[in-house]
């Protein structure tokens, strides 16, 4: 059931990410639905699930992009997912504030990592540094908005199918 739920959530996040247009006033930053799902798995599931979610979400994201070679996002998502997984004992997992902070910081870091890999691989188009800063800020803003919704939706679905237990107290840390 875990694999089916992950597949459904990845497909839904991929469809949302492709359907929601980029914000022109934020340097065409797109809402990071797939990254938010990876971060949800990093906080709530075992390492194997984080790895699978990271690789598959990265492949889906790169397949939706025209400029990013397949595998770049997978590497970034994997690095971020495993980093959050290592720190998850220090996080309040049930709080939407945690989701917003992780989503914002994760989206900005993923954007910076992908842009850095494109520059190092001579695959980037020359853009002003201000545009990169605006895209980082836009990614962080959209990540902070999208991640709580993705985390809440994924958690509700996992509780409905019996993968996750309902919390006993609102501030319980697992």
Stretches with pLDDT under 50, minimum 5 residues: none
Counting DSSP H or I runs of 4 or more residues, the number of helices is 6
Radius of gyration: 16 Å
The helix/strand class is mainly alpha
N-C termini distance: 22 Å
Mean pLDDT: 90
How are helices and strands ordered from N to C? HHHHHH
How would you characterize the overall build of this protein?
This protein is mainly α and 174 residues long. The chain has one domain. Helices cover 70% and strands 0% of the residues. Helix 1 runs antiparallel to helix 6, helix 2 packs antiparallel against helix 3 and helix 4 packs antiparallel against helix 5. The protein is globular. The mean pLDDT is 90.
Characteristics of this structure?
mainly alpha, single chain
Quick description:
With 174 residues, the protein is mainly α.
Give the secondary structure arrangement, pairings included.
Elements: H1 2-19, H2 33-44, H3 47-64, H4 72-87, H5 96-120, H6 129-161
Helix pairs in contact: 1-3, 1-6, 2-3, 2-4, 2-5, 2-6, 3-4, 4-5, 5-6
């Amino acid at each position: 059931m875990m694999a089916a739920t992950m597949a459904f959530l990845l497909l839904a996040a991929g469809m949302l990410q492709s359907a929601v247009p980029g914000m022109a006033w934020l340097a065409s930053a797109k809402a990071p639905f797939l990254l938010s799902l990876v971060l949800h798995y990093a906080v709530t599931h075992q390492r194997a699930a984080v790895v699978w979610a990271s690789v598959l979400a990265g492949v889906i994201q790169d397949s939706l992009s025209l400029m990013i070679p397949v595998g770049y996002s997978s590497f970034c998502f994997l690095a971020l997912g495993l980093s959050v997984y290592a720190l998850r004992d220090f996080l309040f997992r049930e709080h939407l504030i945690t989701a917003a902070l992780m989503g914002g910081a994760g989206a900005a870091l993923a954007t910076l990592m992908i842009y850095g890999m494109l520059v190092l691989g001579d695959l980037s188009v020359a853009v002003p540094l201000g545009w990169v800063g605006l895209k980082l800020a836009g990614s962080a803003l959209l990540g902070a908005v999208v991640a709580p919704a993705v985390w809440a939706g994924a958690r509700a679905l996992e509780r409905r199918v019996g993968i996750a237990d309902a919390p006993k107290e609102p501030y319980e840390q697992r």
